[in-house]
C-alpha cells in the first residue's frame, strides 16, 4: 500500500511538474524573466540557482542582496525550488502576482511588457502540456494493453430501468420478456461504442436526467442486436443515475493482490463450500459437462431438482478439484420500497418471511454484532424482516438504535448502537431462511408498497397474520427446520389448497411460548406461486472475477488513434460533469479532492502499473480542464483577461482584477473544503 501511495504521489508530482514546465518553457520562449520554478507550496525545503548552487531553503534573499550590491553578475535570476507542501506547483514570472494584480513591473522582460498574444501562449502552455502528457500516457497504455471489465451485463437489479425496459425490436426477434439479461454484450450506448463496462456506467452517469439513452446489445442466440431506449434513474445508495446493472462475471473465482481482501475472499469461499478450489480457480465443468459461462450454473441448478451438483475447478497451480454443492431452494419474491428510498426484493414462501440476520459483521466490532446474530428487535420493530430492519436503521441515520439479537439461542441486548450518517451499523445483511423457520411480519403496503401494492392480494401466510417471532414447526404433519423444508412441505401439500400448520407463538410477558394449530388456505395464485418454485445456484456470481477484456491497439498508429480518442472522451466527460452538476444529476457530494483522488489512485495502482499510468492520464486531462475554466486565479481566468486586452488594447481594470482574485480565492477555498469533507466522509463514515 505504501509503495502504491508513493507511486501515486510521484505520479501527481510528475503531472504538475510537466504542467509547470509548459509555462516555464513558453515564458522563456516569450522572453519573460522567470523568478522561480517551484514544486509544491509554502516555504522552500531546498533550492538551486545557477551561479549559487544548491541551498537549504530559498536563495532569494541572498540573490536580492547581491543585486543591490552589484555582485549578481553571472547568477541566474531563476530559482528552482522544492517546497514543503507537495500539492501543486507554480512558475513565478516577473510582474505576475495572482494574489495582487496591481503588482506590476516596468522591466522590458516582465510579464506585463510582453505582447498579449505571447502571454496567451504562456498561460495556455501548461494545459497544452497536460493534454500532450495524457495522450502520450494513453498511447503507452494501449500499446501495452489494459485489462478491464468487459462491456457485458451480469446481474440486473429487480424493477430497475434495465429490468423493465422493452426492446423496440423485441417482437421482430421473438423476444417476449422485457429487460436486459446476464450475458448481454453492450455494443452501443448513447451513440458510443463502449470499450469496457466503466464506459457504460460513465455514459449513464453523464446522461441528462429524465432523458432516455439508446442501448444496443448482442444476446446469445439472436441473429440481430436488441435495441432499447432506457431512462436512467437515481440509485438511492450512490445517488447517481443508474440502469441497475452490474458487470458480467468470468469463470474464475475472485482473487486480489491485497492481503486483507484475500482474507475476505477466503472466508466467502469457505462459507459457500469452495475453500478447496481457492482464489483464482477457474470453473471448467458442471456435472462432467464443459461450460461456456458462469451463468450455466443457474441452468444446472434449475435442472437439478435439488440434488447436489459437481463443480470442476482448475486451481491456479494447474491441479484440478471437484466440489459438490447443493442448490438453494428458490423462494417467491416481492419488491417493496424502503422508506428511505430504494427497493428490497423480499424472499417469502406463501407470505411467510424469514427474519433479518447478520451474514458478516464489521471486523472492528464497534456495533457489538457478530456473524449469525438474529435480530430480535431493531428499534421499535420486533423480529424484523430485512426490509423492516434496514428501513428502521436507515430511519435513524446519524443517531442510535436499540438492538437485541439472538446469539446461540440466547437473547443478548446490545443497547444503543450508533448509526452512521448513511444509515449503517456495520454488518452485511442476510436472513434466517437457511437455518430457521422463525417468521417476520408481512410489510405494511401503506408504508413499504409499490404503487400497486396496496391493492395486491395478500399471500395466504401474510393473511394469517401470525405475530412476528412465530416459528413454524410442522406443515401437513411434516417437521420443518428451515425455509427449504418449509417450501418443500408446502409444495407437497399445495394441491389440497388447505394446509395444516403447527406453529410456536413467541413468548409474551403474560405467557410462555404456546404451540397452536393453524389452517392455511391457499388461493389459486398462492398454489401456482408455490408450485412454480425451482432451484437456484448456491454460488453467487459475485464470487467470480468480473469478465475481462484487454484494450490493446493492433499497431503503433492505432495506439496513437486510441490515445487521442480517449483523451478527447475524458476531456468531454469532465466538461459534461460540470454541466450535470448544475443540472442536478451529479451532486457536489460526488466530487473528490486530493484525498479521494489519492485513495482512488492507490486502489488502481494495486491493479498494476498500467492502470496507474491510465489513472495519471485521466488526472492530467482533468487538471487541464479545471485549470482552463474561466475562473479567476486559474489559467482560464488569466486567459480571459489577456484575451480582453488583446482585443481592446488595454488591460482589465486593476480593481476588477482584485475583486475577481478575491472571489476566485474564496470560491477555490470553499470548493477545497467541500471536496475535502466529501473525501473524509467517504473514507471514514459514509
Textual characterization of the structure:
The chain is α+β, with helices and mostly antiparallel strands. Among the domains are: 153-248, PDZ domain (Pdz3 Domain, Roll), CATH 2.30.42; 250-329 and 540-546, Roll (Pdz3 Domain); 346-533, PDZ domain (Pdz3 Domain, Roll). Helices cover 36% and strands 25% of the residues. It contains 18 helices and 34 strands. A four-stranded antiparallel beta sheet has the order 14-13-15-16. α3 (116-144) packs across α14 (556-583), α14 (556-583) crosses α16 (609-627) and α15 (594-605) runs antiparallel to α16. The longest helix is centred in the C-terminal third of the chain and has 31 residues, at 654-684. The chain starts with a helix and ends with a helix. The model is unreliable at 451-455 (pLDDT under 50).
CATH class of the domain at 346-533: Mainly Beta
Largest sheet, spatial ordering of strands: 14-13-15-16
CATH third-tier fold name of the domain at 346-533:
Pdz3 Domain
Instruction: Please give the oligomerization state of what you see.
Output: single chain
Low-confidence stretches: 451-455
For this structure, what is the CATH homologous superfamily of the domain at 346-533?
A: PDZ domain
Find the count of extended strands (DSSP E, 2+ residues): 34
Please state the structural category: alpha+beta
The gross shape turns out to be elongated
Q: Round the mean pLDDT to the nearest integer and report it.
A: 85
Q: Could you estimate the helical fraction of the residues in percent? A: 25-40%
Largest sheet: 4 strands, antiparallel
* Percent of residues in β-strands: 25-35%
Kindly provide the radius of gyration, computed on alpha-carbon positions and rounded to a whole number of angstroms. 32 Å
* First-to-last CA distance: 22 Å
CATH architecture type of the domain at 346-533: Roll
Number of helices: 18
